[in-house]
Each structure stands twice: as C-alpha cells, then as structure tokens.
Amino acid sequence: MKIGVDVSLLAGNLTGIGRYTHEVLKRLIESGHEWFLYSHDHINADYTERANVHLRTLKTLRCLPRIVSTQTTIPLQANLDKVALFWSPTHRLPTFLSQKIARVLTIHDLVWKHAGETMRPINRWLDATLMPEGIRIADRIIAVSEHTALDLKTEFPATSHKIRTIPLGISSLSKVASRESLASMGLTGKYFLFVGTLEPRKNLERLISAFSALPQRLRENVCLAIVGGDGWGGINVISIAEKFGVKKNVRILGYVSEEQLATLYSYALFLAMPSLYEGFGLPLLEAMARGIPVLTSNCSSMPEVAGNAGILVNPHDVSSIAKGLFEMLENGVLRGKLSKLAVTNAARFSWDKATRDTLCVFEEAFEIRMKLNAT
Q: Do 256 and 195 meet the contact criterion of CB atoms below 8 Å apart?
C-alpha cells in the first residue's frame, strides 16, 4: 500500500505531537508498505534514507504558513503520488484529498473547546474550524487517550463509530550522564522538575506560587528546574519567580538535548505537571519510566496516565498544588513507594503496541474507503 503522512511537525525540535509522529512512523515504516512523507521543510530522521520511503519537501511554499501547505500543496502531491491512504498525526486533514484516498486523523486533545483561552487565538480558530472538518471527512480517528476519546464522542456524537483509542508509548531510555554534569545547569542539590512548552495551559504561575507558599525550610533546600521551549502568552518565568520571591530557587533551562533531559529526569525528586488540560501528558510517562513519581492534575487525561504513581491536585487551586508539593518534598517514604509504582505503571504503555494498533486502524480505513469507492 502507498501511504502518505504529514510530517511537518518533524521539521524542528521535537515536542509532544512531533515525538508521537516520529516514534510511531519509524516503526510503521518497518512494516513494509511504501511511504510518502510530506513536509514544508527538511526533517531530521534516519528513516528517510530507506528504499520504501519518499520524502516530499515542498520547498516552493516555505514562505507560506504550514497550514496553507497542508491544505493545498500536500493534497495535490498526495494525489499525484496516488497514495491509497493518508494519515495526519496532528488534528487536521487536507480537505482536497482525492475521494479515492482513505484518510486517518489523530486527535490529541480538544484544547480549543475545553481550555481555548490558553491557546494562541489563531491556533484556537484553526482547530475550531479545521478539526471538525477533518473529523467529518476521516474514515477513522485515533484518540490518544480514553479522555480524548470521550471528549470527541461528546462533542461529535455522530462520529463515535470512527474513534479508536490508542495511547502513546515510552521512548527508549537515553543515556544518562553523571549527576555532577547537572552542575553546569545550576543544579548542585535537590530539585524537582517541570517539562513542557512555556504557555498558559501548563499553569506555571500557579506552580511557582504554590512553591513560594511552602515552608522556608523546604524551599531553601530544593530547586524547581523548568525545561521547555518558549511558547506563547508572554510566560516570563523570571518575572513570575521574582514576583513570588523564589527566583534563587528556580532554574530556567530552556529546550535541552535528549541526554540532558534523560539526566534531568533520572535525578529529579519528582515531576510536577499541574496542567489545566492535557490530551495525554507525555512527560508523565517519560518520568515514570525512569522511576520518577509525578504530581499532576486531577482532570482531563492526567489521572488516566499517572495511574497510582502520582499525587493528584486541583490545578486551579494554589493551595492544593502547594499541599501536593509539600507531601512530595516532606515524605521520602511516599516518594519511594510511588517510585516503585511508577515503573510498573509506565509499562502499560508501548510504542510498539501503539504502532500495531495504528496499522489495524489503517487497514480498517482502507477497507471502508474501498467499499465507498465501489458504490
């Protein structure tokens, strides 16, 4: 089968959806088939050199927004390549694909619906406009968590029969450097970790406010290490830390390498992720696979992913977050118990299983499209 994939999110630093695309795609390619990868720019991936892979870098439209390429050049090229199936790993499908082409869409979350105020206005408008259309024209829809599947069924009940839940997996554990290597990042003592793009949905201001509310004896002996590239919304972590008087105990590390991230996870006391909304929450899984307990929100998909390996807090309540931080920092026995549970909990998730299930969904979509084209 000829299969087309929108890999635009692989043209840059990998974040959540890009990581998902990369991990599933590199395994899908090993299944055989013939793969046509469409991007507005060059992607860094060793599988592009394989004989069954054709990378279409649409250089002529680099000056235009990625969404324009997705809706114009990509469907045109996919039609020329005569792909039998097209997969979009990220919320939107090209509207003008040939009717002969089966189409599969992955939905990670409905932030635009449930936490729209935390998005860039343009992205909120695009998701609110193009996601429903993509859902309408998709033959099958992959939801990355049971919570996202429930959100989809609630918002689009007529398409419930199309939805298949396929959770994310855990990537291979990268090499871990020495504890001493973290000194170059200003981490010479104990720390807990935040990982995520710096944007309103990640709830950093309440997290830092909660940290500042802890007893001084706890604050003085621990740092909050913040990993993640700049997003939108004017999230100035330095200003927030200054506002709450904890600047000297906050380390802003930006986007880090795979080895640095693995090292930061491995030596952290715990991961703090009190997001307002998540479709899955991949950092939770990354931390737990390394035996690191998590503090996360009691809403959306986060309890589903954290399982019994974390403390759940109300992300809208600073006192609730502070109570969770206090428990994690004060109770070493609890951290040890959660650490053991974390590894077992993370083992529930697998990229290999996600890939096998995705192939099954592709086969379903192809059979449906074949029947539609035969009528």
A: no
CB distance 363 to 334 below 8 Å: no
Rounded Cα distance between 271 and 274, Å, is: 10
Class of CATH domain 2-169+350-374: alpha beta
Domain ranges in the chain are 2-169+350-374, 179-346
Rounded to the nearest 5°, which phi and psi values hold at 266?
Answer: -65, -30
The model carries a pTM of: 0.90
Residue 23 to residue 242: CA distance in whole angstroms: 39
Rounded Cα gap, residues 4 and 374, in angstroms? 22
pLDDT over 70 (residue 302): yes
Cα separation, 38 vs 36, in Å, equals 7
Instruction: State whether residue 250 is helix, strand or coil.
Output: strand
Alpha carbon of residue 151 to chain centroid: 17
Q: How would you list the strands of the sheet with 294-297, edge to edge?
A: 250-254, 222-227, 190-195, 271-273, 294-297, 310-313
Give, as one character, the DSSP assignment of residue 174.
P
Q: Do domains 2-169+350-374 and 179-346 have the same CATH topology?
A: yes
Task: With a cut of 50, say whether residue 61 has pLDDT above it.
Answer: no
Dump pLDDT digits (tens) for 193-214.
Answer: 999 988 899 999 999 999 999 9
**pLDDT digit string, tens, across residues 332-375:** 999 999 999 999 999 999 999 999 999 999 999 999 999 998 87
Q: Which CATH architecture has domain 179-346?
A: 3-Layer(aba) Sandwich (3.40)
The 3-state DSSP composition of the chain as helix, strand, coil percent (nearest 5) reads 50, 15, 35
Answer positive or negative: Cα dihedral of 211, 242, 14, 110: positive
Mean pLDDT, the chain, whole residue set: 92
SS3 98: coil
Instruction: Give the Cα separation of 4 and 88 in Å (integer).
Output: 9
